[in-house]
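REQUEST ID: PR-0412
SUBMITTED BY: lab tech R.K.
PRIORITY: routine
TASK: structure prediction, single protein chain
INPUT:
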Amino acid sequence: MDTIKPLFTATATATGGRNGHSEASDGSVRVDLSVPKEIGGPGKPGTTTPEHLFAAGYAACFGGALDLVAKQHKQDASKAKVTSAVSIGPRDGGGFGLAVKIRVEDKSLPQAELATLVREAHEKICPYSHATRGNVDVTFEIVGA
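STATUS: complete
OUTPUT:
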């Protein structure tokens, strides 16, 4: 496992598990949680899930990694639209697991160039990609010009 030199630490506390509340220590995120009806929960309106939070974080993080890689290659991917879909379901080995589908769209870049940038961002830069590698199935749909 790689070690890091922490530059920033985000801290959040959850109470009540998946049918509770989660809040960042600095107050920047405050969400009520509810298990979706699709997996046997109440699916309360106006609530979110850990999967929504993970999807939002991964999409934002990957977009930043993609922009960094593009700049290193004298390209501009700052307007790329990154959509992360996080699914949860039972694992063959028991318990639950996640799968992630990431769609990257940037019609200002040729398809092949965008695909190269996405691959590099995923393999070398994005910390979410590093954290999920070998643990979570992550697939990509890439839409360039």
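NOTES: The mean pLDDT is 96.
REVIEWED BY: pending
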